[in-house]
Each structure stands twice: as structure tokens, then as C-alpha cells.
Amino acid sequence: MRYIRYAFLAALAIVLVTVALANRQVVTLNTLPDGLAGFPGMGMFAFSVELPLFLVIFAGILAGLLIGFVWEWLREHKFRAEAARKQGEVKKLERELKKTQVERDKDKDEVLAILDNAS
């Protein structure tokens, strides 16, 4: 299984390097379109940067992955909270059971109490 993972990572690295080499052209990345940047008060949000195209592509993929991970983490919060609540309830019931068993076995012989717990 380890070799399959290494082979997959090697193939992925080859594909990423090939995409990077094929997209080395410098592009201008603007935060706002030219028409919108001309509106009063919007100029402070308008800036541009020149980057190689492969960096823009990889940054878009990375941003999409991060947004997806955060979205799923937030979506699954209710399931994690429910599991934690049920785990707390199980621990409480286990404590109650031990307390009940101790009370039940307090007048018994120790050997009989151990045998009852083993079965």
C-alpha cells in the first residue's frame, strides 16, 4: 500500500511540474475590474499583482480545498456535538453502574463479588 501511495504522489508531482512549466507566463491579477475601481471609495480595495499563471492556478486549487475543508468541518459540527454528548452520557451511566454494583456487592464475600463481575 505504501508503494501505491508513493507512485500516486510521484505521478501527481509530475503532473504539477508539467502544468507549472506549461503556464509560466506572467499574468496580472486584479482585485476589482477597472470600471468598478473607478467608483468613489472603491479605490482602496483595488490593487493588482503580477504572478506566473501556475501560481494563480495552484492558489485557486488550494483556496478551494481550504474552503471545502472548513465548510465540511462546520457542517459536521452537529454530529460531533451529538457524539460528544452521547459519550458523556455513556460515561455517566458507567459510573452509575459501578456505584450500583459496589452497593450491591458491599455485603457479599469478595470472591463472590469478583465472580459476579466476571460473568
Low-pLDDT stretches: none
Average pLDDT works out at 88
Query: How much is the radius of gyration in Å?
Result: 31 Å
Characterize the quaternary organization of these chains.
single chain
Query: Whole-Å distance between the termini?
Result: 42 Å
- Helix share of residues? over 70%
Strand content: 5-15%
Q: Biggest sheet: strands side by side, in what order?
A: 1-2
Q: Give the H and E element order.
A: HEHEHHH
Write structural notes for this entry.
This protein has 119 residues and is mostly helical. The protein folds into 2 domains: 2-75, no CATH class; 78-118, no CATH class. It is built from 5 helices and 2 strands. The chain has helices at residues 2-22, 34-37, 53-75, 77-105, 110-118, and strands at residues 26-30, 48-52. Strands 1-2 form a two-stranded antiparallel sheet. It is elongated and about 85 Å long. The two termini are 42 Å apart. The relative contact order is 0.06. Residues 47-97 form the Lipopolysaccharide assembly protein A domain. Residues 76-110 form a coiled coil. InterPro entries: LapA_dom.
